[in-house]
Amino acid sequence: MLRVAVPNKGALSEAASDMLSEAGYSTRRGTKTLVHQDEVNGVEFFYLRPRDIAIYVGSGILDAGITGRDLLLESQAEAEEVLGLGFGASRFFYAGTAGSFTSAEQLAGARIATSFPNLVDADLQRRGIAATTVQLDGAIEVSIQLGVADAIADVVETGSTLRAAGLETFGEPLLESEGVLIQRAGAESRIGVLKRRLESVMVARQYVLVDYNIEQRLVPEAISLTPGLESPTVSPLQETGWVAVRVMVEAKEVNNVMDRLYGVGARAILVTNIGACRI
Ligand SMILES: Nc1ncnc2c1ncn2[C@@H]1O[C@H](COP(=O)(O)OP(=O)(O)OP(=O)(O)O)[C@@H](O)[C@H]1O
Ligand SMILES: O=P(O)(O)OC[C@H]1O[C@H](OP(=O)(O)OP(=O)(O)O)[C@H](O)[C@@H]1O
Ligand SMILES: [Mg+2]
C-alpha cells in the first residue's frame, strides 16, 4: 500500500481531506482517527501534525504527504515539493510594532520571535544580517508586547492577527506558501496516480465546460475568445452553416467570456461544472 501523510488538524487539515475525497479516496470518519486504510485505492493515510509530515516523508517512512511549503522548507528534511495544491495560501513576513521598522536590513542586532527559525536564519544569512531568533511555538504576535522580541517573523493570511496586535509587516514576503504534495527527494516516484488525481481536482475546480452554437464563419473569432486547454471541439449542427463548440474556460472568467461570445454571435451558451477529469 502507498503510505501518505495528511495534516491531522490546523489550517490545512480540512482542505487536504476535502481534496483527497474529491480525488476519489476514502478519508477518515472522525477527527481522532490517526490511520485510515483506503483498501480500494491501495492507500494508507496517516494523520500527522503538519509540521512533522516532511520529516516522515524525507526519511522514507512514508511515500508522500500533504503539508505547507513553509513547513517543508523549515523542516530541512530530504523531501521535495511535487505539486502546489492551490489551498492554504499564506505569506511569511517580518513584522514589528507599527512604524518601528521599514526594511529587513534594520533587523541587525534585533531579537526575532518565530516558530520558523530555520527559514528566518536562512533569510538573515542571505542578507548578511546578524540577528537572534527566539523560537516560540505560536501566538507569536504577542511576543513583542511581552518583551522577549523586537520583531517577529510569522505566517500572514488575512493580516487580522497582526492588526489586532498593533503590528505591521515590513519588507517583501520571505516566502509565498500553500499546501503542497511532497515526496522523498530524488525518490523513484510511486505517486504518479495520486499526483494525477490531485492535479485533476485542481483542474475540475478551476475550469468549467462551455458549450455554444455559432455560425461557422464566426468560429475563428469565437475560438480566439475560448482557445481551451488544447483545442476546442467543433461539431456540425443540423442547420447548415452552424456549429456547436465545446471548450474549457476558467471559472472566474466565465461570465465575461459569455458576454463576449454573445457579442460575436454565439447563442445557446451553456456552462457545466466539471465533476472529475484526467487531463
Ligand atoms: N491562517 C493561517 N494560519 C496559520 N497557518 C496557515 C494559515 N493559512 C495557511 N496556513 C498554513 O498552514 C500551515 C500551518 O498549519 P497549522 O496552523 O496547522 O500549524 P501550526 O500553527 O504549527 O499548528 P497549530 O496552530 O495547530 O498549533 C502552514 O503551512 C501555513 O502556511
Ligand atoms: O493573517 P491571519 O489570517 O490572522 O492568520 C495568521 C495567523 O494564524 C496563525 O496562527 P494560528 O491560528 O495557527 O495560531 P498559533 O499562532 O497558535 O499557531 C499564524 O501563526 C498567524 O498568527
Ligand atoms: Mg498555527
Topology:
Layout: E1 2-7, H1 13-22, E2 35-38, E3 43-48, H2 50-58, E4 64-68, H3 69-75, E5 79-84, E6 90-97, E7 111-114, H4 117-127, E8 132-135, E9 151-156, H5 160-164, E10 167-177, E11 179-184, H6 192-206, E12 207-215, H7 219-225, E13 233-236, E14 242-250, H8 254-264, E15 267-273
The structure holds adenosine-5'-triphosphate, 1-O-pyrophosphono-5-O-phosphono-alpha-D-ribofuranose (PRP) and magnesium ion.
Order of helices and strands: EHEEHEHEEEHEEHEEHEHEEHE
Task: Please report which band the strand proportion falls in: under 5%, 5-15%, 15-25%, 25-35%, 35-45% or over 45%.
Answer: 25-35%
Broad CATH class of the largest domain = Alpha Beta
Looking at the structure, what is the overall shape? globular
Number of domains: 3
Number of helices: 8
Q: What Rg, in angstroms, do the CA atoms define?
A: 24 Å
CATH topology of the largest domain: D-Maltodextrin-Binding Protein, domain 2
Under the CATH scheme, the architecture of the largest domain is 3-Layer(aba) Sandwich
State the distance separating the first and last CA atoms. 25 Å
Describe this structure in words.
The protein has 279 residues and is an alpha/beta fold. It folds into three domains: 2-81, Periplasmic binding protein-like II (D-Maltodextrin-Binding Protein, domain 2), CATH 3.40.190.10; 90-174, Periplasmic binding protein-like II (D-Maltodextrin-Binding Protein, domain 2, 3-Layer(aba) Sandwich); 204-273, 2-Layer Sandwich (Alpha-Beta Plaits), CATH 3.30.70.120. It contains eight helices and 15 strands. It has helices spanning 13-22, 50-58, 69-75, 117-127, 160-164, 192-206, 219-225, 254-264, and strands at 2-7, 35-38, 43-48, 64-68, 79-84, 90-97, 111-114, 132-135, 151-156, 167-177, 179-184, 207-215, 233-236, 242-250, 267-273. The longest helix is centred in the last third of the chain and has 15 residues, at 192-206. The protein is globular. The two termini are 25 Å apart. Bound molecules: adenosine-5'-triphosphate, 1-O-pyrophosphono-5-O-phosphono-alpha-D-ribofuranose and magnesium ion (MG).
